[in-house]
Fold this protein.
Amino acid sequence: MSGFDSDALISREENKLKNAVFNITEYEKFVTDNDWTAAFDKAVNDIAENNGGTLFVPAGTYMTRSIELKSNMTLYLDNGSELSFSDEIEKYDILEGNFEGITRPMFKPCIYVKDAVNVVIKGEGTINGNGRKWWERILDRTLEEARPCLVYFENCENIKLFSVTLTNSPVWTVHPLFCNNVVVSGVTIKNPADSPNTDGINPDSCTNVRISDCLIDVGDDCIAIKSGVEDSLVKKECENITITNCVMVHGHGGIVIGSEASGGVKNLVVSNCVFQDTDRGIRLKTRRRRGGSMEKLTFSNIIMDRVMCPFVFNMCYFGGKVGKEPWVSDINPAPVDEGTPVIRDMNINNITVINATSCAGVISGLAEQPVENITFSNCSITMTDIKEPEPAAMMTLLKPTSGAGFFIRNAKGLVFENVKLYSVIGAEFDVDDSVQMEQKFM
């Protein structure tokens, strides 16, 4: 026997090809008027023809429009590099995309990856979406198509996003859709507080997602888990998600599920996080006709500071289209069908809340479908006195409050074990006959 292993040799040759490095500066001849779009297009196509490789971006600023990555490719942004995306809106291509659960015309995302495997974005550089003109256009209602996400993956597998800084996104910053095996780690996301709908990371109908060690400071929800709406062409569950060691600063919510959750969300674990100055902390939002279940959720070892309302589990959410219709907040039971949403089987433990302002928590189920089997254990919630009442949850059943305790309606199987509330104005628990709960003290 010669000992020659042809399969191993082929494998080594394939690895050499995939490990090939393509420096974007080698494509400078394709740059016109400081626009690197054609250079990135050419580099990506060369890597694809090579069956993989790394696109290396050294220190410097590179103005470009959309960059479409392909399979077996790494985009490496060196320390001091910045991809600066053009704000010349009319020059962006428009394609069919998915935003807020609806398939619609969408400006091509800044970093766009579709139907790909083994794609990595990493390095110490910055991806700048220069979103100000996009925000102005959406606020003055002169933009018909959906804005581009900063980093968008659709129908992909084995996706990794490491260490980069993402800033000024036109809309949602990181949007994985219909993806499997997604890792986001060590990423910094910064969008201005007044930037509309600039969520941080929104896994959408994905499986096996791991988010860790991120700093997120945005104009909307920091991390929002989604799975389509009642009108979505495809309703696919979002499941097997872990979020750990993250810091959320500002934003409308720290960890949010919904309101687009018609496909369901399950098997979520959130641990070892800090929320500071977010409007809400842990927030679940849905409503009648949306359907889907939010279940098997665990939240532990979280500190919240200066959060308006730390816990909101709201099945009467009035945001968006038809949200103000009477059936959304009707206190009478409706028929149970596939459009009836479900919130159940949740554990919340070792949570410390200080300087909460509106109320300790809102738990609002439906008369026909109560929130079920929620356990709070070893939690400390301290309210702070403010003069102006605030809206703890987007629902018509609850008026703005200041320093209040828990507001609970239509819930069963609630357990509060060693949960301590401090500086509450009025009753610690505002409940009625629709609530079945148990309090335990050590």
